[in-house]
Amino acid sequence: MELQMDSHFKSPVDMLQHWVDLYGDSTYLRQPINGKYTDFSWREVQQKMQQIAGALRHLGLQPGEKVAILSKNCAEWFITDLALMHGGYISVPIYPTANADTIRYVLEHSEAKAIFIGKLDYWADQEAGVGGDILRMAMPYDTMPAQYQWDSLLKLGQPLIDAPVITSDKIMTIIYTSGSTGKPKGAIQTFASFEWTCKAVVRDLKTDVEDRLLSYLPLAHITERVAMEGSSFYSGSCVAFVESLDSFVDDVKRARPTVFFSVPRLWSLFQKNIIDKIGYKKLNFLLKVPIISSIVKGKIRQGLGLEHCHLLGSGSAPIPPSLITWYHKIGLDICEAWGMTENSAYSIINHPFNASKIGTVGRAVEGCSIKQADNGELLVKSPGLMTGYYKQPETSASSFDAEGYFHTGDLCAIDDEGYVTITGRVKDNFKTSKGKYVAPVPIERKLAQDPHVELICIIGSGLPHPIALVQLSEGAATQPKEEIRSSLKATLDSVNPHLESHETVDAIVVVSEPWDIDNDVLTPTLKIKRHVLEERFSAKVDGLRGGKIRWEDEL
């Protein structure tokens, strides 16, 4: 059943009623517990939504008040979100990996009156960020202490049946950005912006009641909230969850998803596992033999649990074009997409997959307009845009031009067919000690073509020339160091002659410590914090010259 895009507003709560009427006893959500699914039908989800909303009323929470959600993905996350919509509350999702300081800031800035706490890996470290005055409610998992447990909430007060009518202009959620610099900003999204974006995703990806989705990327991030949770409301697709990191591969195979979105880090890890099992040279040989090639490709898809997928996607952070090209060779086409919290994460996508446009993030989707500012910045306008930043009227006003286009902060190139290549961030450009400005991202993209590179960051503020910091791909771990050094040197020597003299990269340094969220190098959406690496490495690499390739322990 395909839902048409029209002007008649339907909230997620309206859509839940729609699916209850059509398929009330069919399974909607699948939560793995101890390796087995606990299933929730559409009707059960609606009943629990009404009961949780009723419990919030019973506890004195008023429509329009903010309620936070701090949890990894689970069925109760969806139910809680629906209950907040149904009760007229404004949801404030928080990343399950957020530290205590970030949690405290978001709760205080948003003025949240209550918080739902669920599946968390490090709740003991995070609890200090949840103030004593705020009402805590716990989902049925091992989590921090709370005044009310899930089972008691399901019995508290009366189910909220006759709830306030949800209108399109009402604020649905405030989503705090995981910016690479400064304090997070709260993007205000209405029911209208959320509905439009979810319907656009369903329209373009052609999902329906036959599809099976897997929700495991953080629901606190707008991409997962729209692409998995939101699209399920408007497509009727069944959604499964992941129990833990250890069970991830088994959970994917059990879910048999028909649509699968991931982040570059995971696609890189999958690549390593494939190469480890088959061997790099053997795989290349097998892919050249016509009949065997198709068998090998089928077994790889099956091994990953993706044999039923009609769409694969990557987003949240840049993915090396060499990685998409590698997957294309083994018969897996990954559609790269671009979006932001501020535009509900869906504006530009390389879908249907176009192999000749690998390296771009695709074209603007129907209903979204893009243009390039005089300084090369990408400007975007769509019905999915936020109304502004919470409590920041001046920043909100300066984020839009006179025609209502949003300033993304990304620099871009747009080709004759409308395909967009992100070439950097407006704020990323730095000045070397010679007084020349360098745009690092185009150089990073060229160097990232080396298959040994997973993540790369060029620094150089105050240095004579730029230096490239590299985290090796998972697949490189099994290869001899000198082989990697030789490959990186060849890549650098092929890139430098095509750069301006002040842009040439003096050296590549292979870092020892993996970049992740815990050591503050990556944002929760896995974007690199360039300023953090500048601070840690500038003094270390100053003095490297002549196109050298060095490991950090060699400095």
UniProtKB/TrEMBL annotation:
Record-linked SUPFAM superfamilies: Acetyl-CoA synthetase-like (SSF56801)
One of the Pfam families matching this protein, by short name: AMP-binding
KW Nucleotide-binding (keyword) present: yes
The keyword ATP-binding is assigned to this record: yes
InterPro entries documented for this protein: AMP-bd_C_sf, AMP-binding_CS, AMP-dep_synth/lig_dom, ANL_N_sf
Keywords, sorted A to Z: ATP-binding, Nucleotide-binding
Residue ranges occupied by any AMP-dependent synthetase/ligase domain in the UniProt entry: 17-390
Top-rank lineage group of the source organism: Bacteria
Catalytic activity: a long-chain fatty acid + ATP + CoA = a long-chain fatty acyl-CoA + AMP + diphosphate
Protein name listed in UniProt: AMP-dependent synthetase
